[in-house]
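Reading a protein record of the kind used here takes only a little practice. Think of the row as the fold of the chain written in a discrete alphabet. With that in mind, consider the following protein and its fold in token form:
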Amino acid sequence: MFFSPANCLILLLVLNFTDAGRILRKIKERVRNLQLQEAKQHLQKQTVSGRQPLQHVKEGRIHQQLDHFNRQDVSTFPQRFFVNEAYWQRPHGPVFLFIGGEGPIFEFDVLAGHHVDMAEENGALLLALEHRFYGDSINPDGLKTENLAHLSSQQALADLAVFQHYISQNFNLSHKNTWISFGGSYSGALSAWFRKNFPHLVYGAVASSAPVKAKLDFSAYSNIVGLSLTNKAVGGSEKCLAGVREAFAAVEALMSGNASQVAMDFGCCTIPKNLDDQIELMQNLADIVMGTVQYNEEGVLMSINELCGVMTNTSKAYEKEMEAYNRLVKLAKIYHSTSDEPCLDISHEKTVKDMMDTSLPLGRRAERQWTYQTCTEFGFCGVDPWKELSVVQDRTEDGEEAQTIFIRDTAHCADMMSRKVTDRCSLKKAREEIEKHVVSWLKMAAAGED
């Protein structure tokens, strides 16, 4: 990757995300729902104070070419976007583009978030573009395997370029309107790649928790999870990590001789009799730990401090040789207490069946599309906070400079949320750094136009 030092910011966090198992996907959905709830509350407060930002939001569709790299194919699909003109200082105010990733976008993506805060402060036009084949931006037969061939990051980047031209024409924009792109996780990588591939269209890019490197066997994720569990700043310890390792070893040992007992202890829907189902069970239990690490203090499950409290608490209620195992059982019960699922589904056959469902996403699910993308483009096999695939130094492997902000004690893409009084000092400082970069880009762009 090449990153212009003046025009691109790669924002990297310790904790990131993956879509490895059912539970982790559900935790991710909870995080997104919580963010939407917070955005609604923020909007309600503005409405009470007499402001009506929702009135300035418009939803639209652009008919994108299905294959940008085949001129003979004239097929198109409708791509959804949102526009918020509430803060735009016409006619030369900047444009802030929120890039959608592996899921649907919402009107709140142009109403709340750190990029929205900065848009208000800098008089920017706010845009959000949904990724092809996710949310509502998909044709009725789009999930059939032969059609998924048009689902790729390269096609998505071409979508962004076409969308930039479309908006520029419809809003009579010129070179005086400076574009800044924003994204987190996969869409953070798209933000960085958009700036790299189309520097004449976007002046600067903020890429939060961006996995810009592809890697087939990405087992390094587990190492980062382990390191996070030992981080004293967030409540971790070496004892906590040792307890987690011991617990999983105990599950594996017991499952080989008494799978029915394991199924009963962890509330499984079925007994994991074959290897595939046993792997599903282990993956889902691992998801509880990984989801905790990824989202830590986001309020959707438990924090690392709380998890480690369970895994290191000495209790006479447990027999010594089964103590770690029973602590993991307790963690699973904590998860189930926050879930509406009657039991833990560990059927690998059902997982495969769900992945083969080509009907339009019910509730805008994205498992099939994202699995296809990761398998065909990125790898990501294994599980991971994506720090290992991000740029964490101020110089890339190619020697190009890259501006980085490394936040040591927060969660995945937490910087993208609006400011809160309860935010950690490191998160507040990171946002201040982002704001300084964005303001400096806008000043440099304006100076270049004089």
About this structure: The chain has a mean pLDDT of 84.
